[in-house]
Amino acid sequence: MSDFTIPLRIRETNGLPREAEAIRTGVPLPMGLVNDPAELCASIAGRSLPFQARPLAFWRDRSIKWVLVDAVVPVAAVSEAAIRIGRVAAGTSAAHAGIRIARFETSIQVDTGPARFDVPLLGSRLLARVQSDKGSLLGENGVECSLVDGANNRFVAVTETLDVEESGEVRATLLAAGGFAGAAAAPPVRFTARLVFIAGSASLQVEFKIWNPQPALHPGGLWDLGDPGSFHFRDLSIVCHAAKAVDVEWYGEDPARKQRSSAPSGTVYQDSSGGERWNSPNHVDRNSRLTVAFRGYRVTETADGAAPVVTGSGHRATPGVFSPGPGGMGVAVRDFWQSFPKALRWRRESLHVALFPEECAAGFELQGGEQKRHIFLLDFDPAVDGTRLQAFQHPVEVAVDAGWVERSGAISWFTAASDNDDATYRDYINQIVAGSHSFFAKRELIDEYGWRNFGDLYADHEAVHHAGPEPFISHYNNQYDFIYGAFLNYLRTGDARWRELMLDSARHSIDIDIYRTQGDKSAFNGGLFWHTDHYKPAATSTHRTYSKANAGGGSYGGGPANEQDYSSGFLACYYLTGDPEAAGTVRMLADWVCAMDDGSQTLFAIVDEAPTGFASSSRDRHYHGPGRGAGNSINTLMDAYAVGGNRQYWLKAEELIRRCIHPADDIASLQLDDPENRWSYLVFLQVLGKYLGQKLEQGETDYMFWYARDSLLHFARWVLANEVPYKDVLHKVELPTETWPAHDIRKCHVLYLASRYGGGIAETESFTSRAEFFFRRCMEDLLSFPTAYFTRPLVILCVYGGVHDYFSKVAASAPLPVAHAYSFGEPERFEPQRARLGATLRRKTTLVRDEVARMLRQKLHALRKR
Questions:
Q1: SS3 label, residue 57
Q2: What's the rounded Cα separation, in Å, for the pair 517 and 675?
Q3: Which CA distances in Å does 354 have to 210, 331, 344?
Q4: Cα separation, 672 vs 678, whole angstroms
Q5: Structure letter (DSSP) for residue 431
Q6: Are 215 and 368 in contact (CB under 8 A)?
Q7: Counting C-beta atoms within 10 Å of the first and last residue's C-beta, which end of the chain has fewer, N or C?
Q8: Cα 376 from Cα 786, distance rounded (Å)
């Protein structure tokens, strides 16, 4: 299509007029439509907008598959606006706002129009100068970051590298990275500061990350707070030195109730979430003591020579602190109360953004391989009422037209929500975002808030046997990839609540749930932690699975493993937001898969460098047939290939496919009718279906395509002939929970996939009919449980349930031919490194024994001849 229009809906719901609101979102494009992002423009009511676009993914013909768009739009308070993205008309150009970037010997200067920002290439200032037509807006020391460790040693963040990460007409991003320095020995932690500049704005958005690259010791596979690999500290604050004495106004819960401070110093400090369960056992330190001291927030002000006085308090603050008028400055933090403790401070000539505030008496522990990001705004010469701070705290909602997303074909098995969708399924899934079962409501049950917890889901299914007044603490850690399910439902419906849950969960998992170190063993480095332990409280393990509080006797413990490797949500987050951390996380997880399977990285490599099998085993280390461990590994490798096109990831995925499945497998020998131990073969088949779809998308119908297609059909025919709903065989499982019928959606999905890959008309109809049967039984059986609205079944259905609406709505293409010229031979049994090692050692022991016996015989023969 030469001309096209992509509708974007913008909604303002907070009563804030936005004269120039910067928006950003990812947009999918059909194959062959756009080759160069410069072809695109944006308009509102026929008027061009300041706009930029950047490709994130490509189709096989190198046309753009996902494009990240930025625009500056006007939106009235409590209103909707319709933006149109289309092709630039011949002879015209898009409206330009413009950002100018200049590199000097000691700094990079960014000119947004209203302000010029000088960012040092090296040294202890994150920002050196801000100039406007009002003059200099920063003091001599600019903006610094101060860190106080557990022994009260003070350090400053020191930039070691500064790069232009992104540059365009609307937005530019600089990335500073470095460590901390002071009089004492340097701490092990590192930092990055992502500085985002918007054309036409004197505000600077900063994403600041602190990271502990040390490995944990995790004795016995236990991951509690207090591990020697942790870093303990008391304060981490951004200090903005003003060019003049500050005259401060602040607001807390209600931005309309601004108060002027008459004191030269003061603090808005959020100690806990302020919710009903603010002092939940979710908030404990390494000694199991509560880290929260009081409910909500307090404002204290201090006059010269006087003691601090509490001048305000409340439950949940979303505050801003600003010095109004010409040459002023303002600060605000996103998710201030949700990610407590937090503080905004003012001093006589500075404003402080306390990301980890010393006002918290408990201090802080950053575990080995853990990181934390915060986003805050520095607003220079702000409006007298602090409106820009409020707009930053409450962004507008942006949604791409769901029909366009469907027509783009960029998302597998995607269809826009419609009135013809299955009503039972739609009402069930809607419980995630609305009502007493919603994930928002579940946060309140255990107070799933605080800098380490916010964004994770409450694993309420683990509390089913719990009794007692205290809430049962269990964390979900993105099991079954809720992030991806929220992404799908957000794009299907345009409902911003799905986007909110998705991004909260993604930020949490990227920071907390992934073991970001290279100092541990290859099977753990860069891996994703399991959900916390089944039916046991998290205690002091936080989000890291195994706690010494639950160990008891016998074998207990572990660490990251392939069966808990979920990457597609992170890839989706990258496509939707352009977040480099999300893309990097997908690559990190794929590198983890490769490393855990690399026999050369183990001690046994001295004898045998064969693959370890850690990437392909499921349930136990001896099973390397179809299962979720291998399926998740393959899925992650394919996602990483989508990020950067590294062919090695793709080849490793195909190696694992060949290792775990074959078109001539003896299925009976795999005991797939044992649901307790083999249910997850369905996960593998779902991933195999994704692989086939990507092979077709790439135009590759080669040996591996037909190998995978024949394997899928071989196993789907077994499903067709042998599988029954899980509720009919609950006597075969150890714990007959509501999750079993939820997994029936996987049988539905596999059979629908098989219906698209050959077998003739009659077999295709059989596959489709049986898929419909499993969908109906899945919903009917699941809803027969009073526990149907627990987190786990809701997640499974929000990720996979939409395939029924897709296959019911989208007409099937012509089935592929059954016959082809390839011969796949016979299945070969895979032997992991340890099994091979045992055989090798036995073989070498036999050789040594035989050689010693031969030498003895020769010696004895020589003696006899004497």
A1: strand
A2: 36
A3: 13, 11, 6
A4: 5
A5: G
A6: yes
A7: C
A8: 43
* Angstrom distance (rounded) from CA 166 to CA 161: 15
Q: What's the chain's length in residues? A: 866
How far is Cα 575 from Cα 55, in angstroms, rounded to an integer? 10
Q: Structure tokens of 596?
A: 């855990």
- Cα separation values, 263 from 301, 431, 823, Å: 6, 48, 83
Helices (H) and strands (E) in the chain, counts: 19, 30
Which amino acid is residue 791, in one-letter code? T
Tell me the DSSP string of 264-325: SEEEEEE-S--STTTT-TTSB-TTS-B---SSSEEEEEE-TTS--EEEEEES----EEEE-S
What's the rounded Cα separation, in Å, for the pair 749 and 401?
A: 26
DSSP class per residue in 156-185: EEEEEEEEEEEE-SSEEEEEEEEEEEESSP
Give me 357's structure tokens.
Answer: 């505030």
Degrees (nearest 5) of the Cα angle 576, 579, 584? 120
8 Å CB contact between 660 and 632: no
Buried b (16+ CB within 10 A) or exposed e, 681-700: bbbbbbbbbbbbebbbeeee
Cis peptide before 341 (omega within 30 of 0): yes
Report the distance separating Cα 450 and Cα 203, nearest Å: 27
Q: Closest by alpha carbon to 80, among 170, 6, 8, 28? A: 8
Residue whose entry in the numeric block shows the structure tokens 């109809």: 765
Cα–Cα distance, 552 to 482 (Å, whole number) = 32
555 with 221: CB under 8 angstroms?
no
Mean pLDDT of successive 10-residue stretches along the chain, which has 866 residues? 88 94 97 96 95 97 98 96 90 68 97 96 97 87 97 98 97 98 96 97 97 97 97 98 87 89 93 98 97 98 90 96 86 98 95 98 97 97 81 96 97 94 96 97 98 98 89 96 98 98 98 98 96 94 95 87 97 98 98 95 81 94 96 98 96 98 97 96 98 96 96 97 98 96 98 89 93 98 98 98 92 72 94 77 66 70 66
Cβ distance 118 to 129 under 8 Å? yes
Give the type of residue at 254.
D
Would you tell me how many other CB atoms lie within 10 Å of the CB of residue 388?
23
**Structural contact between residues 354 and 237, judged by C-beta atoms closer than 8 angstroms:** yes
| Residues forming beta bridges with residue 73, ordered by sequence position | 21
DSSP state of 475: B
Strands 364-366 and 190-198: what pairing?
A: unpaired
| Tokens, residue 501 | 């849950």
